[in-house]
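so i finally got all the pieces together for this one. its six components total, 1746 residues if u count the protein bits. some of the lines might not be protein, just check the labels. i wanna see the whole assembly predicted at once instead of chain by chain like last time, that was a mess tbh
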Amino acid sequence: MSNKLKLGIPKGSLQDATIALFEHAGWRIYASGRSYFPTIDDAEIECMLVRAQEMARYVEHGALDAGLTGNDWVLENQSDVERITSLTYSKQSRTRVKWVLAVPEDSPFEKPEDLAGKTIATELVEFTKRYFAAKNIPVKVEFSWGATEVKPPTLADAIVEVTETGSSLRANRLRIIETLMESETQFIANKAAWADPWKRSKIETLSMMLNGAMDAQIQVGLMLNVRKADLDKVIGVLPALNSPTISHLQDPDWVALNTILDNSLVRDVIPKLKAAGGAGIVEYPLSKVVL
Amino acid sequence: MSNKLKLGIPKGSLQDATIALFEHAGWRIYASGRSYFPTIDDAEIECMLVRAQEMARYVEHGALDAGLTGNDWVLENQSDVERITSLTYSKQSRTRVKWVLAVPEDSPFEKPEDLAGKTIATELVEFTKRYFAAKNIPVKVEFSWGATEVKPPTLADAIVEVTETGSSLRANRLRIIETLMESETQFIANKAAWADPWKRSKIETLSMMLNGAMDAQIQVGLMLNVRKADLDKVIGVLPALNSPTISHLQDPDWVALNTILDNSLVRDVIPKLKAAGGAGIVEYPLSKVVL
Amino acid sequence: MSNKLKLGIPKGSLQDATIALFEHAGWRIYASGRSYFPTIDDAEIECMLVRAQEMARYVEHGALDAGLTGNDWVLENQSDVERITSLTYSKQSRTRVKWVLAVPEDSPFEKPEDLAGKTIATELVEFTKRYFAAKNIPVKVEFSWGATEVKPPTLADAIVEVTETGSSLRANRLRIIETLMESETQFIANKAAWADPWKRSKIETLSMMLNGAMDAQIQVGLMLNVRKADLDKVIGVLPALNSPTISHLQDPDWVALNTILDNSLVRDVIPKLKAAGGAGIVEYPLSKVVL
Amino acid sequence: MSNKLKLGIPKGSLQDATIALFEHAGWRIYASGRSYFPTIDDAEIECMLVRAQEMARYVEHGALDAGLTGNDWVLENQSDVERITSLTYSKQSRTRVKWVLAVPEDSPFEKPEDLAGKTIATELVEFTKRYFAAKNIPVKVEFSWGATEVKPPTLADAIVEVTETGSSLRANRLRIIETLMESETQFIANKAAWADPWKRSKIETLSMMLNGAMDAQIQVGLMLNVRKADLDKVIGVLPALNSPTISHLQDPDWVALNTILDNSLVRDVIPKLKAAGGAGIVEYPLSKVVL
Amino acid sequence: MSNKLKLGIPKGSLQDATIALFEHAGWRIYASGRSYFPTIDDAEIECMLVRAQEMARYVEHGALDAGLTGNDWVLENQSDVERITSLTYSKQSRTRVKWVLAVPEDSPFEKPEDLAGKTIATELVEFTKRYFAAKNIPVKVEFSWGATEVKPPTLADAIVEVTETGSSLRANRLRIIETLMESETQFIANKAAWADPWKRSKIETLSMMLNGAMDAQIQVGLMLNVRKADLDKVIGVLPALNSPTISHLQDPDWVALNTILDNSLVRDVIPKLKAAGGAGIVEYPLSKVVL
Amino acid sequence: MSNKLKLGIPKGSLQDATIALFEHAGWRIYASGRSYFPTIDDAEIECMLVRAQEMARYVEHGALDAGLTGNDWVLENQSDVERITSLTYSKQSRTRVKWVLAVPEDSPFEKPEDLAGKTIATELVEFTKRYFAAKNIPVKVEFSWGATEVKPPTLADAIVEVTETGSSLRANRLRIIETLMESETQFIANKAAWADPWKRSKIETLSMMLNGAMDAQIQVGLMLNVRKADLDKVIGVLPALNSPTISHLQDPDWVALNTILDNSLVRDVIPKLKAAGGAGIVEYPLSKVVL
């Protein structure tokens, strides 16, 4: 089974976003509704849909050569795997998720120590136990099968739960008293696979193209023409990070600028470019950026 | 909080069927998409949506007075609760579900003993461990977060999984080698609640009406007229269980029969009734049956 | 155009419930998605879909002979029409709706008088103006095109809005300080149509059957057998309103009872009937009840 | 394969209605989206989904013992099959469908003879050819793969097409000039299967129960109490067809009537019953009627 | 509350298109299904969903600093607001909508004057009254709650109604006899906000970027290579409006052209460019165009 | 009717893909759900939706000037039409479909000759008859109205059926024993229309733009900067087919490359470009490519 990379795709909330990212990166994954073995248009890769919670376990044991999962579940399972790159694409935004300790709004609990002797419900049982053990706070940690945030105060005293914006916690009248961990998606590999040259090269190509596609989603291309006299002023408006490509035009008084820019800056930069003398400003979408 | 029954409704696959059964029984439960505290049109009851997996745990501890869950999860949690009645209404049919030990079709495993030293994936970890321990078969039991049936042979050697018809197992090319347990929905109560006369009476009323509604779904009413001369022949065709109500008619040669019958028998019984001299045979639907 | 009744069906939130009620009553109305002139399987009736807000206006002027609309809109338009019957079937429940005066939770307003000089947003402009004028409270009443409950405090000081349970008002942090009117669906008729014998008879038939169908939705049939010795005890358990039909059985020691009962009473009555000696208790659904 | 009836269920527009009718009749057919071999809860029957157009062909050849299809396709295929019963349940109504000859509204064609030498598009090619041949009118009949009613005048001169209400024809500005055939669903059997005693008995049971379920859908039960003095008047109001069951009540001045009635008559009969002295009039739904 | 712009987003048919336009322009608006206060990823802006009909009223009074609404509703309310720019993006197309006076196809009305003494139904009551008053034609104008186009002739003699293509009017057999107004979306501002330098600058930035995004939706980028000898011929084929950017290539006989073009012209221009000697013609999409 | 091209759009499985391709090519087709005459934003074209099976028949007869259909149906109808271009856009992929002869997996049939005397079901009756006649194999070919792949072995011995990946055949346990034809979408024209200069020019423009849009869907643009010293190495990495456009930059040591590339090659080429010294590599999407 040399020259075949066994790749785990996270089943569930990240699945569609992951498949979309691979498509942008250049690999088409076909996941029919029922099968857990999606096909991929690359004869060197074999895909399997695996729950994010179990991914690190199976990558560690070598049932998979590589996979995508959250850092939270790598830590929960204490898996010994190679971390290739972080990929910050979550369902709704690009922010990282947080695992927090939350208690009822009107409870007296203010800090982790206040929960000594209490019951904590969470999906992240092992991580939570280690966290409280490290602080020498005795608590009872119960596995929660879901809907964790509705449990306090009836079914638990506090919870350790994942959140992006905190809105679901607020809606359930819970108050965050501590952030235990921040987490984002990781591209991880089995240690033996990483030591194999062919597999490592394949994993690195995937990593480069996934990052190239991800970067292109938050950047845009910008072209404009500038009178040579205004060139410094216009360049001064651009973020310092990437210098633009400047090319001659038939009209010797003008040059053309072509640059890439973070999508979030465009609404501020374009008005300044125009004020500085930029003309014919055109923004165009990108598919990949590999600088 | 006397005169208030805290009732757990199973969240998830049984939720809609449970709410429908309560409606047939005479209680309307309004579950808005987001809230875990559905309202009910009975001031003496407070509802909470709880996962079937956790129901027995919370009924045992008294956070809930009573609830509905599968017998499988009562056993998994080894909860010390009062079993009031079985309610055989599952999503698709009225058959019980089974938890089975399944292995890949083409594997050499033929009986539980063959799995000594192997890895078994299941949602029912504690029950499975006890099962194999009782047989003195050493196995590694891993918790499965879902999609258990696709794990063999790549991610596990065998699984313990729930099934109604076995079709999902067959579709994943698995072979059943043992049935570990049959399970059906249980109406369970907290032991202290059961000892409280008001709560016990309320629970018994619920039990009577839920059973009455459930029975009505599998039975129908049948009315027909019979010449007195044919009465014995007609009665002979009816199942022996319930004797029909026979009433006089204005026409002294005839009587009217009114009876209830299992829905599944109707297609066989009506042709026989007609052959035996039944006339004006009318089947009508029932809403509750309390014999 | 004699012997043809022009009937207005309320377009919008009541439409499906109205058409369903007519079907239960014995008239099938076919409303294709686009047409405002649904067909009906009664050659003596012509239907038109009309907004509840405008129904009374067109019934008053005679463009329609009869129609269904809320009492609120009859009052808003001060229409001079004949009220035939109330029909309490709303989308969600059978309770009446209320039009209330609501203000921001944290505002100082406590009673209508506190709103002197303020702006009130409502869909029911004329009724609201008359209400405040009658109390000699000067206010500015603005027509609201919708989403009235989000307007205070930014876009209005208070609102007059319809509500069933108050939950939408609470969700928008509004406080009710006065109920201005309760409203339910009315079957109304044009005064000239009501004076025409053929039209009046047709309207009365509709009214009888609509009420018969509506009553059947909140009532059920109950049959049981009783030993003659227990008859008084069993009858004592039944609500006094409707005496049951009691018939002889072939077995001279027993009688059969057949009665109708409010759906909401069944869960209390059946356990009592059984305790009093009722046997073979069967509840069955009804399609129409005309006592 | 004795004691096994091979039954064809029509795939397509009639499929859901057919399965619903079988459920009412007492047989549950489970058709999963993809399989053409639905399961049925009767070990003596094997189902197969077959296009209505091909059903008669396969019943004739014995690949199926019995099946449901339209009379139109029996005639198109000139199949030599046994017709057991007509079953008038179509998707929208209970009226029969018609196959008509239709031409553009503004064309000069007035009768079949006017189409001599013209092109006619239809799905019913053989029947149409025979129809025109019998009249000695030479026409070109082309098979239409669908959307037949949009073909005139661009792609055909006339069409032979199925219609229930004619509304699709009118919408396409076509005019009917002749009705070639009326058609309704037929329960048909293979001639050899009909000669086999066991199969014939099975087919007859199906026929009795399908008809019993179908009749129940257009009939209702009616119960009322009548003072003996009013009995003749009340009976005079009922349709003559079925005499009611009259039973004694405990109160010797009254009798109870129980009868069945066409659903479409109820809205006229109930007001008359009440006027004639009927009391406690209750309509209830039926599931099967076998008189 | 300085440095905070209160911005009204039109609720309803324009809402999704408006939010999409803002996203193209560089602002992400998150409108959850229930809230009327969508969040926006710009700390300097506060959004509120407001009906287009009420927008101008609230911008005029200063409850909002700026907002988007149709010119029709600015006129209906006779609101004294600053008009910043027109934004021709409607749901279906980029054409303006028209408010027209329409009458039944077979009515005798031919011009506004013919409606003297008649009843006109419309949502635009005040505008319509002023229109007829200006012409000294006495009419009765009634507010229509919706479905205006089905009212003539039963419920009104004529209507004033909005239309894009006239197809809904034709479907209701109405005939347009006059166009009263053309309307398109306006970006409007409160007069005091417009006088505030910070708010004005913010509004102007929004206006520039909204227009830049809107223009990019109807334009494309075009790149091609041209032999210097063919340059004039190729340039002659391009629309005169925007001169292309011409740049040198390594091959001294060729130049590269880069230009933008209206999307609707591409299908005519590309064949001509190729015929004139253009090579390697590539069209690419644009995200913003600020010339 | 000169200067008007009558164009057939395939109704059914290809319809949406065809309309999307025309939109990419520069023509917007509006197909409302019911009408078979979609509008198009080109006054010189008239569209009609026609079944792919019938398209060639109507193009041949001149009812349509041009149309899109599969090569399979051109052959089935043996239509004498002009084939303008192939357009390989099918619903799921760009591969061609195949018509294959398939038999039950466990049948003894191995080659076409083995089917002598057997029954073959297919939608492609005439083509199949000619195929077997040419081989002198006597078979019975029956028209299949659909669901052809479930017919063997009960209803037919073998089938001739269309397939892309063979998965539906495998799912029905069928085995392919011969490929009779490969087919892809054809843009075809009536011979007289092709001889008319105006129509021919219009058809050629459509063909150029449809191909330009289709090519753009499988290609991308790639821009990068290269040190002059690395230029040969970088160019060596690019596929030989299209030479890149190379332009001077202000920095005399660097040049800019702009090229187009098959989408499927990008994931291999970008890593090599970077390794060869490419910098600032940017991939951007294309809308049309006309080389």
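The longest strand of chain E covers residues 174-183.
The mean pLDDT of chain E is 91.
anyway lmk what u think
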